[in-house]
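Q: Sequence in, structure out?
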Amino acid sequence: MSSKAELGAQQIALIQRRGINFVGGVKGLALNVTMYGSRSWVLRYRLGGRRRDLGLGAYPSVSLSDAREAARRARSLLAQGIDPVANAQAARAKLRA
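A: Exactly. Output:
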């Protein structure tokens, strides 16, 4: 993971490079740009030796500040030993029931 400086909203709006683009502010927070140009926020982390990606929403529907806040909440769960992806899946399953 890159240790780049924290990018601002205007800099993020200019990102065109396809793939994962780390934005700083929260370790692992990135803007994913697809080959079709769609963009979404992703939190990339490692748990139990396995890399995981947690989707945080589409850009620009989810703002930079909201993405950073969601990433901080997920990092807080990780600090407690809780996998944010598994936690989100369990919450969705509970809503379906």
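The mean pLDDT is 93.
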